[in-house]
Amino acid sequence: MPSFSSPLTDRVQTAQLTIGHTLDNPTLVMEALVTPGVALPGLTTRMDGHKELALVGDAVLKLALTLDGYEAKRSRDLISKTLQTKASNVNLALVGRRMGLDNLVIVNPSQAGMVSDKVMANTVEALIGAVYMDSNSIDAVRPVLAAMGLDGPA
Q1: Which of 11, 101, 138, 147 has the most CB atoms around it within 10 Å of its CB?
Q2: Is the pTM here over 0.85, yes or no?
Q3: Is 112 left (phi over 0), alpha (psi -120 to 50) or beta?
Q4: Straight-line distance from the first to the last Cα atom of the chain, in angstroms, rounded to the nearest whole number
């Protein structure tokens, strides 16, 4: 991991404790916490901050929920409703705030320290994406989803 200042390292460690998973590549956690427009010395994030990881996380979340529903022999309608509810930005923002992740997000200076619901939802998705990219395993993501209350029907 690049050498970050202690507050940044603390954010990464706190995020990992919060989601209940320690990544082999903690730089992915930092990328997940950085919003578009933020430049940090020593961190080569993508131009859109955590948006690419959020795309991965969104896909992984939907895949996991769909597989959970399928394996539980749920109807297609129930699986769709679960996706609409649990994977919605409104729910993801609530999950992130409930877990205190809004205190860890590194926002663009133009946001004056405010973490919008959209940014919070993207951050949750990005953290899910980071776990998947680190492990390349949906099974590694499942306990994180459970810790977030985002696992599917049993």
Answers
A1: 101
A2: yes
A3: left
A4: 37
The conformation of residue 22, written as its DSSP 8-state character, comes to -
For domain 6-148, give its CATH number from 3.40.50.2300, 3.30.2420.10, 1.10.150.130, 1.10.1520.10. Answer: 1.10.1520.10
Amino acid at 62: K
- Residue 105 · residue 115 · CB < 8 Å: yes
pLDDT one-digit tens code per residue, 10-58: 999 999 999 999 999 999 999 999 887 676 666 655 567 789 999 999 9
Measured between alpha carbons, how far is 108 from 28 in angstroms, rounded to an integer?
A: 18
The token pair that represents 125 in the structure block: 């998705």
- Domain spans of the chain, in order of start: 6-148
